[in-house]
Amino acid sequence: MGPQVTEDGPIPSNDDVKLSFSSIPPDQEIMELFSHFKSRFYPFQPVCYDVDYIESVVSSLIGGAGQAPKVTKHFLCLFHAILAAGDQFSDSPVEQRSKLFHKHLRHALKHLGTFEVVLNPAIEIIQGLIVLSQILQNDVNPRGAWILSGITIRSAICLGVHKKGPRPESSQLSPRDAAKLRCKLCPFCLLVHVSVDNTDRFSRMAIIWQDTLLSMAFGRNPSSHEMYHETDLPPLWQHSSEPAGLTYRQAMNWICHASMKYFVVPASPPESAVYNDIFRTFAEIQASCAKHIRERSECRSLLEVQEHYSFILHRNLEFHSFADQFSPGKEDKKCTNKMPRTFFLGSWTL
Predict the structure, then answer these.
(1) Ranges for the Xylanolytic transcriptional activator regulatory domain (predicted)?
(2) pLDDT above 70 as % of the chain
């Protein structure tokens, strides 16, 4: 006989539960790696829609409290993915760092497989997949990241993350929660406990962020168009009328959404008018950013310096992807003459 099945999926056996909790590392390892994740990884990769809630659940594992009620196999997949990400940014010797990274990567993938994400997707699994894709990119495994990005997008669609408006009673996501996940998934393809009102929107943005960056890196069309809802984003303001400006994450969400809107891998380059729209949009985004993102001289902390250069790096990556279609090596010389490569120099580059 197979395992018992409910509306929420298969019920794990006692042996499965023991195996799951046996993967939890010593307290010191948890505290050190999670701290690295939160301070060094998370500020630039919004892979979790409520890192403080996740930290509270992780804290319940400290001190041998391994049977904490909020800790499920779904959560353990995300938990080990987070520790693997934290290890990538630790100060440990390379050999030790590699050993810990692959240990937690294996545990995360094991818990992912145990729950058969295709048949029983969950919010924790979506977040775990986003983290896993990012750390595989960092580990120079873009093919693995590309594969996981496709699984992430379709799992999110099964959960209804791509939909706006009221959700079915059985749904785990509110409209705003799904919006957040959509934004995370968008960057996936181009390079792949939260307030009930916020999860959808955060999820959508995370998906788009990942999808967009990974797709551009592969020179492929993104796959998360169903997550695209421009109303998930804050309005663009000229900095003269909105002193605060867009935060780093808001600015990144905007350039990833703009790239998804325009980036296509066509048989021939599109009309130059399309590119005029692209650069007009990017100029509006930059004008709406916080001062420290626009100007290095406005940076007042190390984090602001990192955000300034990280934004420039990703913006130029996306510009390069668009500009590549106008390179002299392309067959359509007429388009190349309309938009010379010098257009992409100057204030848009480091």
Answers:
(1) 145-241
(2) 67
